[in-house]
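hey so i finally got around to running both of the ones u sent me last week. sorry it took forever, my laptop kept dying halfway thru and i had to restart like 3 times lol. anyway pasting them below in the order u listed, first the sequence line then the structure token line for each. didnt double check formatting much so if smth looks off just lmk and ill redo it

first one:
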Amino acid sequence: MPVPVAQGGLKLPQPRVCKVKPHLARILAILALPLLAACAGAPTSKEPPVVPGYEGVQDGEFFIEPVPAKYLYDGNRREEVAYSGSEAPGTVVVDTYSRKLYLVGEGGTATRYPIAVGREGLSFRGTGVVGRKAEWPSWQPTRNMVRTRPDLYAAYAGGLPGGLMNPLGARALYLYRGGRDTMFRIHGTSDAASVGHATSAGCIRLFNQDILDLYGKVPHGARVKVRTEAESLAIEGPQMTDAYGRVVPETPENLAKKEEDLARIARQEEKDLAAAEKAEKKRLAACQRRGIEPDECPRPAPAEAVVTAGTSDSSRNG
């Protein structure tokens, strides 16, 4: 490199060249990565779609989560429909066979809500009135529920206060007949996947967003009618369950689709079984390499049991 020379022949000092050692250069490059990533912008995440009417709701001290769109398929969401029944406006009509609840309106219309129907929901037919209403009701399992499934219900034998984990959900309407509690309830649920299906326990449950809507429109003393099978057939027509346990009109198209879906589900179950067997072999092989006996080999933690609502003869407390 030529030496810089100033005017008059004087030598100027040479600029110092800093040599960075290779390992230090690598460290500096790694440290710079976060800065480069920040310049590129943070990755954007897609928010799940929210269906109007089923957004998240702040209700007092509790926040009700939005209902996932996958549970709001056609026919399984609240909507205004034409209504041909003979009931007077303001009547609540429950059809456990089509798994629908109607709030009868004026001029041949009604608001239709999808429902889940539990075993207790099948025990009542005829008419009654809303004898009590409760916000964030407490819940207590029946003695029979505690006796038959102590693993699920024994811990709640003394009752469960109202809240997000309570199986009665955000609101409850209690059906009375002749001044007495019938043990028939119309209530909310945080188990959105159950709405539209038959369930092993409970009465009539709605999405929490729907029970909030219904609760605000139905006064104390409102008439409630629970249809018989013959009444349901005359008004709704023949119904059937599809391959996923949902009630749909019984038509040749739906019958054919059910067969196709059942075959598809069977194929998927075979794949899932093969995957589970492969995972089991892998688990046992990993334990064998570590000298762990098969009966002592750790298993994946089981999913937590979900508490399901029933009725209680002591549920006057909530």
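and the second one:
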Amino acid sequence: MSKRESVSNTRPARVEKNPTMGCCGYPARLSGDRSSGVEHLVVVQDVAGSNPVGRPFSPMRIHCVQFDITWEDKAASHARAEALLEASGPSPGGLIVLPELGDVGFSFALDRIVDDRSEQWACQLAARWRCWVLHGWPMLGRDGKGRNVSGLCSPDGTLLGIAEKMHPFTIGNDGGVYMPGDRVRVFDVEGVSLCPLVCYDLRFPEVFRRGMSEGAEMFTVIANWPAQRDAHWRTLLIARAIENQAIVVGCNRVGSDPSFRYAGGSLIVDAEGVVVAEGGDGEEVISAEVDPAEMRTWRKVFPALRDVR
């Protein structure tokens, strides 16, 4: 396992690493403002930093599981991810993040890869570790066409909701298989407003701003990001954290599929753009603690978001 060289905006002391069909309708139990196109439980009234409901906030442990997804083999992929988690032992109440299409790879064979097992496994994983789990899988929408989604499961093992990939990678021809999502979603995770995005979405800053307008404080980007463009991956994740004064978590896969090689490089970035944990190019779980209070303080001390037009 290789590790990237430290850079000037990395705080080494804070890095902790542990080697080693539903349809696209959203669950009725999910509450929130549907008229705005965003489902969330905590409405953040001041994006420059506030806690409108007066809830206490504690630091959150985030765990990114980067691994070599077995092509179109859910059982094998699940087993590999579980082995890495067993070795790392995530703490209850944390957030476990897995890659885009994290148990099948970037496959277009919807007839072979769409079933209920991905959602069921993610929810079982959440209950097993008593953690929040964000996992990527393929689904069919109400129109019978594919959706590339990021699903969020709560620590009690229930699906809180899903977010569709907003920007299919048309350069790679997946636009004919996976339809684009039509709205961002923001969820409450331990009092933090979380906006899940998927891979190619990272290249479009306007979708992050849409999340910000709905109170997002943390963004997750799950990906199958090819090694040939890994410098873009790292740069854009840091940029999105800086410009939105938000915590950004990027979870990428490693290994290869029939089309590309993947170099990992999963990243956890704080609201000032400081990298607090970074993966190498091999299988591993990277973990770090992020403090929402620090993010909110930074937004108050340097309230740039108030000048967004």
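quick thing i noticed on the 2nd:
The domain at 12-18+60-303 is CATH 3.60.110.10 (Nitrilase/N-carbamoyl-D-aminoacid amidohydrolase).
anyway thats it, ttyl
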